[in-house]
Design goal:
- This protein folds into two domains: 228 residues, P-loop containing nucleotide triphosphate hydrolases (Rossmann fold, 3-Layer(aba) Sandwich), CATH 3.40.50; 104 residues, RNA polymerase II/Efflux pump adaptor protein, barrel-sandwich hybrid domain (OB fold (Dihydrolipoamide Acetyltransferase, E2P)).
- The chain has eight helices and 21 strands.
- It is globular and about 75 Å long.
- With 354 residues, it is of the alpha+beta class.
- The strands form four sheets. A six-stranded mixed sheet has the order 7-8-9-3-10-11, with helices on both faces. Strands 2-1-4-5-6 form a five-stranded antiparallel sheet, with helices on one face. A five-stranded antiparallel sheet has the order 14-13-12-15-21.
- 24% of the residues lie in helices and 36% in strands.
- Bound molecules: adenosine-5'-diphosphate and magnesium ion.
- The site of adenosine-5'-diphosphate has 10 residues, from helix 1.
């Protein structure tokens, strides 16, 4: 059983509380991602699960065993956990085989069995042909695969990954996402993955936990997080979004710039209308709001535009083949296909950066 249950877990350093009370269960075989900006407490959470940090209060269970509680503390090496960090934690003086076999030696596994298991796991991470290479002869991505293989080889059913792709170049980062996901499925491990990269979180996770300043903002599937963000922070952090301030009345929202849009929801008073760039289309006639096309950037697969609506610049993204339909400077209508209305919490949430 490799579920993880955290109950009322908090962490303070001195009198600074970096994790507010967290309660949640990560299921056996689940891929859970802790997502949030730098400094929000992701690594601290992971280190508490691993046993490198003691929670200030609360209890952590792995399967049915308490590993951390008021009267219990199981050290990291007895928690049956594999870990991979951002920096390449491979031993430079050992070749790939020796790096990966190490946990099996510690466990006292027989030599013939060791070889079989190392080769099996190296195959899974596509390193079979590099068995005798030294780390200095490997790329960053290959070194991270060595670290992943070493975390898996011992048979841990629980894998904790802390920004393992952050040091890789963009293209490799994207392929590695899918590889990690495949390896997770193949070995049937529970993964807790830490990242500040929402694309990684979306691509791999069964559930995403969005943190901000040590406080959980939302726990949901990637699709729910994207389509139904719990608040403005989540809406802004995950994906691209535009915010328009206004006041909701019965039947309509009066936007700060003066235009009105139809509204059938229940909110009243100050609101923020949140709309993703791909959920608006430009039309020559008839739509939700009027504006002026100020910029259009042809990016091949997309047409990335800015439309000025009463002084607010909105980002509108259409398919690449919509480029050129409107000249810059042309008046356009924006048709909203899907949008959200949040209560305006008065916080200075940045709208989209252009
Ligand atoms: N050992 C420590 N002593 C004091 N403060 C710490 C310590 N480790 C982390 N912090 C603080 O806790 C907060 C969360 O840090 P961290 O978990 O590393 O964030 P993240 O991984 O999300 O970037 C930060 O404000 C950080 O400065
Ligand atoms: Mg961190």
């Amino acid at each position: 059983m490799s579920s993880i249950t955290l109950t009322d877990v908090t962490k303070s350093y001195g009198n600074v509380q970096v994790i507010q009370s967290f309660t949640g269960t990560f299921a056996d075989g689940e891929f859970v991602t802790l997502l949030g900006p730098s400094g929000c407490g992701k690594t601290t959470m992971l280190r508490m699960i691993a046993g490198f940090e003691k929670p200030t209060t609360g209890e952590i269970k792995i399967g049915d065993s308490v590993v951390s509680g008021p009267n219990t503390f199981v050290p990291p090496n007895e928690r049956g956990i594999g870990m991979v960090f951002q920096s390449y934690a491979v031993w430079p003086h050992m070749d790939v085989f020796d790096n990966v076999v190490y946990p099996l030696k510690i466990q006292g596994v027989k030599r013939s069995e060791r070889k079989k298991r190392v080769l099996e796991v190296l195959e899974a991470v596509h390193l079979s042909q590099y068995v005798k290479r030294m780390p200095s002869e490997l790329s960053g991505g290959q070194q991270q695969r060595v670290a992943l293989a070493r975390a898996l080889v011992g048979g841990s059913k629980l894998l904790l990954l802390d920004e393992p792709l952050s040091n890789l170049d963009a293209k490799l980062r994207e392929t590695m996402r899918f590889e990690i996901k495949n390896v997770q499925k193949q070995f049937g491990v529970t993964v807790v993955y830490v990242t500040h990269d929402q694309g990684e979180a979306m691509a791999m996770s069964d559930r995403v936990i969005v943190f901000n300043k040590g406080v959980v903002q939302q726990i949901d599937s990637p699709m729910e997080i994207y389509r139904h963000p719990a608040n403005q922070f989540v809406a802004d952090f995950v994906g691209k979004i535009n915010f328009l301030h206004g006041v909701a009345n019965e039947g309509s929202i009066e936007l700060a710039g003066g235009q009105r849009m139809a509204y059938s929801g229940d909110r009243r008073g100050p609101v923020v209308v949140a709309v993703r760039p791909e959920n608006m289309a430009m039309r020559s006639d008839g739509g939700t709001l009027r504006g002026t096309l100020t910029h259009a950037y042809y990016l091949g697969d997309t047409n990335d535009c800015r439309v000025d609506v009463d002084g607010t610049s909105l980002r509108v993204i259409g398919a690449g083949n919509t480029f050129g339909q409107f000249a810059t400077g042309a008046p356009v209508w924006l048709d909203f296909d899907e949008y959200l209305v949040f209560e305006d919490d008065g916080q200075d949430q940045t709208a989209i950066r252009t």
